[in-house]
């Protein structure tokens, strides 16, 4: 029988590794978590994983981080709740802080777009693989197919993710860079409150963060739009949650203390909300009304993931090189059973080499 300490160490190892290798944004992160925790390690079944994913879509905060927190608690109790989230976020936060320091000195992020362009095809393949696995569990009949299709169409038409999920739940119930001397004068308390508010109110994927940050920071003259876009680019090109773009912003505003405050503040609500809702989900998930609601939300989530895939595909498969990368990623993932972590690691290396040799 596995001891509590062994399980906790396992949680730290799994999510620490994902925090170092999970490229591609929230949908890809969830796909990698599903592969590690459901398919490879058997911590839970697909249905329970889908229920947790549905629950994260009903509360604000970064979904993939909340999934890490949920899964950590499931595997190792309350210590696992903290360990799973911290292990997933910390590697990205440290790396983003280092890159922010370099950015503050040189004023630009060289060749980021080349690395991103190389990673995008692999992201599409990993998300597609996860979509197939999750759809097999969530789609059990004509009603679920209709809900997933409606969610896909609504998302592509511009209806917000939170609106789609809330409607599904209701349906289920019924059936110039910056000036350091100026920016460092921003009080850490004020920065912390801004990031805390964002973390407590941000629904949808991590990419929604750019709108929140612009409204709270750039619109107040704290940060230029160009620096904000660079922060989001760094959040995408580094592994781990995209919301560590706030870490980058915090460093630009107030150095290392600002990076630390921004990171803690933006992710803290996720820990609190998962701690509050996780036990309720486990206790109520088999009640008929809750089960119907979760089933409907699960089908809607499949549609939302499909919408992400549709949006990513055109940009990701922009040329013959990208298509070749996607085919190679698919072959490694399905034919060789290489695993998404290995696929992303290999493609990242290829992207770095491609960026270095580019003229």
Structure summarized in a few sentences:
The protein has 359 residues and is mainly α. The chain has 15 helices and no strands.
Describe the structure.
- The chain contains 15 helices and no strands.
- The chain has one domain (4-176, 268-357).
- It has helices at residues 4-21, 26-40, 46-57, 63-106, 112-138, 142-156, 161-174, 180-183, 188-201, 209-216, 225-237, 245-284, 288-316, 320-335, 340-357.
- The longest helix is centred in the first third of the chain and has 44 residues, at 63-106.
- The protein starts with a helix and ends with a helix.
- The protein is globular, with a radius of gyration of 20 Å.
- The protein is mainly alpha-helical.
- α5 (112-138) packs antiparallel against α15 (340-357) and α6 packs antiparallel against α7 (161-174).
Topology:
Blueprint: H1 4-21, H2 26-40, H3 46-57, H4 63-106, H5 112-138, H6 142-156, H7 161-174, H8 180-183, H9 188-201, H10 209-216, H11 225-237, H12 245-284, H13 288-316, H14 320-335, H15 340-357
Radius of gyration: 20 Å
User: Strand fraction band?
Assistant: under 5%
Give the overall form: globular
Number of separate helices: 15
Q: What's the number of extended β-strand segments?
A: 0
How many independent structural domains?
Answer: 1
**Major beta sheet summary:** none
- Class based on secondary structure composition and strand pairing: mainly alpha
Taking the alpha carbons of the first and last residues, their distance comes to 56 Å
Mean pLDDT: 79
Q: How much helix, percentage-wise, in residues?
A: over 70%
Unreliable sequence segments: 176-183
- Summarize the helix and strand pattern as letters: HHHHHHHHHHHHHHH
């Amino acid at each position: 029988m596995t001891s509590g300490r062994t399980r906790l160490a396992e949680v730290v190892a799994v999510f620490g590794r994902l925090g170092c290798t999970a490229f591609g944004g929230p949908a890809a992160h969830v796909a990698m978590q599903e592969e590690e925790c459901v398919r490879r390690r058997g911590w839970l079944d697909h249905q329970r994983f889908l229920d947790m994913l549905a629950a994260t879509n009903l509360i604000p905060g970064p979904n993939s981080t909340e999934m890490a927190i949920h899964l950590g608690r499931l595997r190792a109790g309350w210590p696992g709740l903290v360990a799973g989230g911290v292990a997933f976020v910390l590697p990205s936060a440290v790396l983003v802080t280092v890159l922010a320091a370099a950015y503050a000195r040189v004023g630009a992020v060289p060749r980021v777009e080349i690395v991103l362009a190389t990673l995008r095809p692999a992201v599409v393949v990993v998300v597609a693989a996860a979509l197939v696995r999750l759809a097999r569990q969530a789609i059990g009949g004509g009603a679920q197919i209709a809900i997933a299709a409606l969610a896909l169409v609504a998302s592509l038409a511009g209806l917000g993710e939170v609106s789609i999920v809330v409607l599904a739940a209701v349906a289920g119930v019924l059936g110039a860079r910056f000036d350091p001397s100026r920016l460092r004068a921003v009080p850490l308390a004020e920065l912390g409150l801004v990031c805390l508010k964002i973390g407590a109110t941000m629904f949808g994927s991590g990419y929604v963060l750019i709108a929140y940050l612009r409204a709270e920071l750039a619109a107040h003259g704290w940060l230029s739009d160009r620096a904000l876009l660079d922060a989001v680019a760094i959040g995408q090109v580094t592994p781990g949650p995209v919301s560590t773009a706030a870490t980058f912003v915090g460093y630009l505003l107030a150095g290392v203390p600002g990076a630390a405050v921004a990171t803690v503040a933006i992710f803290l609500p996720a820990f609190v909300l998962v701690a509050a809702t996780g036990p309720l989900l486990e206790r109520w998930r088999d009640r008929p009304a809750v089960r119907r609601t979760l089933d409907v939300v699960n089908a809607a989530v499949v549609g939302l993931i499909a919408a992400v895939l549709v949006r990513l595909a055109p940009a990701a498969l922009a040329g013959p090189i990208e298509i070749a990368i996607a085919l190679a990623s698919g072959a490694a993932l399905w034919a060789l059973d290489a695993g998404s972590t290995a696929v992303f690691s290999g493609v990242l290396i290829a992207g770095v080499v491609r960026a270095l040799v580019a003229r």
